[in-house]
């Protein structure tokens, strides 16, 4: 039986998570040969750990699931591998038929070296790269032209990533899906051997961000307050400026935070919809600022002063 919990109140899912964790601890001691796994969001796990009996014993059995950059592109390849024409379009990837799963990409994804990219770094296997070749085949080598152009594989990841630096396959797939839809709507042939153009990827930003925000609003009504930041210029010069805007509840959406702008800001940062940044290097004594990841910027028509937001992601190359 499955039950989906909606609404801004986390008490019910947190209580159910705590009960589930308590039951797991009790049965794990009694039945040694039954290996049960529980998958919880980090925020629910934190609340369950503080409420469940003997929750401290969980720490040695916890594993954090993280989607790497290669994982994201493997999911994309998994979807593309279901089509014969796309498998033929990617001859460098050796897809294997594995019933009943279907066509699967190779265990190690080859890094296709192009002239624009340097050779792999010393000590870094060629099959553990950033999949520059796949992204380049899909939409070209770089986004835009000129000295400020960005590499396509980094752009796709940066615009699929939340403020915590976490990548979700669903978000990346939505970005690709909306880009291909844009290409179909424009009925314009992509140059060379690519499927879409940078123009299509740019057009996909807004619907991708809007869909992710809608998903977050279903469980966290406080996300509605981001509408107060619509058409604002980012980053805010101070945290107080952001807190003043977020302190007002969004009409018709009771989220339990009342006018506590500081608590709202902390929650939105924890959800990855906002980012706290250090002051600029030229202002070492300045105040910390609040920014928004690129995933949500277009969806809220936000403008950014200066360069793009740099988020940390593992083994960036």
SSE blueprint and pairings:
Elements (H helix, E strand, L loop, with lengths): L10 H20 L11 H10 L17 H12 L3 H6 L6 E3 L3 E3 L27 H8 L2 E2 L6 E2 H7 L10 H18 L11 H22 L13 E2 L4 H8 L14 H10 L4 E3 L11 E3 L2 H4 L5 E2 L13
Parallel strand pairs: 5-8
Antiparallel strand pairs: 1-2, 3-4, 6-7
Helix pairs in contact: 1-2, 5-6, 7-8, 9-10
Structural notes for this entry:
A hairpin with a 6-residue loop joins strand 3 (142-143) and strand 4 (150-151). The two termini are 44 Å apart. It contains eleven helices and eight strands. The radius of gyration is 22 Å and the shape is globular. 39% of the residues lie in helices and 6% in strands. Among the domains are: 11-61, no CATH class; 217-304, Arc Repressor Mutant, subunit A, CATH 1.10.10. It has helices at 11-30, 42-51, 69-80, 84-89, 132-139, 152-158, 169-186, 198-219, 239-246, 261-270, 294-297, and strands at 96-98, 102-104, 142-143, 150-151, 233-234, 275-277, 289-291, 303-304.
How many beta-strand elements?
Answer: 8
- State the share of residues found in helices, binned by percent: 25-40%
Give me the CATH architecture of the domain at 217-304, please.
Answer: Orthogonal Bundle
* Through-space gap between termini: 44 Å
Please state the average pLDDT score. Answer: 81
Q: Main beta sheet, described? A: 2 strands, antiparallel
Report the structural category: mainly alpha
Instruction: Please trace the helix and strand order, writing H or E for each element.
Output: HHHHEEHEEHHHEHHEEHE
- Which range does the strand content fall in? 5-15%
| Structural shape | globular
């Amino acid at each position: 039986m499955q039950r989906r919990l909606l609404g801004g109140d986390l008490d019910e899912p947190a209580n159910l998570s705590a009960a589930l964790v308590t039951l797991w601890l009790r049965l794990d001691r009694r039945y040694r040969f039954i290996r049960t796994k529980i998958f919880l969001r980090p925020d629910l796990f934190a609340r369950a750990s503080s409420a469940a009996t003997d929750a401290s014993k969980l720490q040695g059995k916890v594993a954090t699931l993280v989607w790497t950059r290669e994982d994201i592109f493997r999911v994309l390849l998994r979807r593309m591998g279901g089509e014969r024409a796309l498998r033929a379009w990617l001859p460098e990837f050796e897809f294997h038929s594995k019933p009943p799963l279907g066509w699967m990409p190779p265990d190690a994804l080859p890094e296709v070296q192009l002239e624009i990219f340097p050779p792999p770094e010393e000590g870094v296997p060629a099959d553990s790269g950033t999949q520059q070749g796949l992204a380049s085949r899909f939409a070209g080598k770089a986004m835009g032209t000129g000295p400020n152009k960005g590499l396509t594989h980094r752009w796709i990841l940066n615009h699929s990533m939340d403020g915590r630096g976490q990548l979700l396959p669903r978000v990346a797939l939505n970005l690709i899906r909306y880009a291909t839809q844009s290409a179909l709507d424009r009925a314009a042939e992509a140059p060379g051997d690519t499927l879409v153009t940078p123009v299509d990827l740019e057009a996909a930003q807004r619907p991708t961000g809007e869909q992710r925000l809608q998903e977050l609003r279903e469980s966290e009504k406080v996300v509605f307050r981001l509408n107060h930041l619509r058409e604002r210029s980012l980053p805010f010069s101070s945290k107080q400026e952001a807190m003043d805007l977020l302190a007002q509840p969004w009409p018709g959406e009771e989220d339990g935070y009342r006018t506590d702008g500081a608590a709202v800001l902390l929650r939105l940062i924890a959800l990855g919809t906002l980012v706290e940044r250090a002051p600029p290097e030229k202002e070492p004594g300045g105040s910390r600022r609040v920014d928004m990841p690129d995933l949500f910027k277009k969806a809220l028509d936000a403008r950014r002063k200066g360069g793009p937001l740099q988020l940390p992601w593992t083994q960036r190359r």
